[in-house]
Amino acid sequence: MRTELQKMLAGESYEAWDTELTTMRVKARQLLHEYNQLIAAPKEARAAVLYQLLGTASNADIQPPFYCDYGVHIKAGDNLFMNFNCVVLDCALVTIGNNVQMGPAVQIYAAFHPLVAAERIKGPELAGPITIGDNVWIGGGAIICPNVTIGSNTTIGAGSVVTRDIPANVFAAGNPCRVIKTIQ
């Protein structure tokens, strides 16, 4: 029998109010509360708490306030920068490459719900992985939806809603986000 955590990470329907998942979210909320209180603290002090939350955070600079569901499902590469008010719903693996920068209020949503109302009101949730390549810039207020890959060296315009894969080496923007031009 699979646990709700195993189902969640496998992209299957799962019960978010499972005891194990709830315990994991509470632990993350406690660390986030501590982290977000360090808004004026030196980067080193924030890094110690961030490491407890993410498990990996090589030279990450995430400006408080920052919010996530679990933290442990965020795999961040070197030199990550996230500006104020970023949110990562990491119910599935969220992989962020090296040298990624995000403007304020970027939202990364691995979580989603059934489209059919009769199924949705029963309470199950779903999650899909998100992958962001190396050297990506994501403009402020952009939303990255589940089951999306953004290729390396790409720029996502501010306010974009990324609902499908975006290739490497492009500038993409809009709602829904689409490729505007190739970057040489």
UniProtKB/TrEMBL annotation:
It is an enzyme of class 2 (transferase). Belongs to the transferase hexapeptide repeat family. InterPro entries: Hexapep (IPR001451), Hexapep_transf_CS (IPR018357), LacA-like (IPR039369), Mac_dom (IPR024688), Trimer_LpxA-like_sf (IPR011004). SUPFAM superfamilies: Trimeric LpxA-like enzymes. PANTHER family: ACETYLTRANSFERASE YJL218W-RELATED, GALACTOSIDE O-ACETYLTRANSFERASE. It comes from the Bacteria. This is Acetyltransferase. Its EC number is 2.3.1.-. The lineage of its organism: Bacteria, Pseudomonadati, Bacteroidota, Chitinophagia, Chitinophagales.
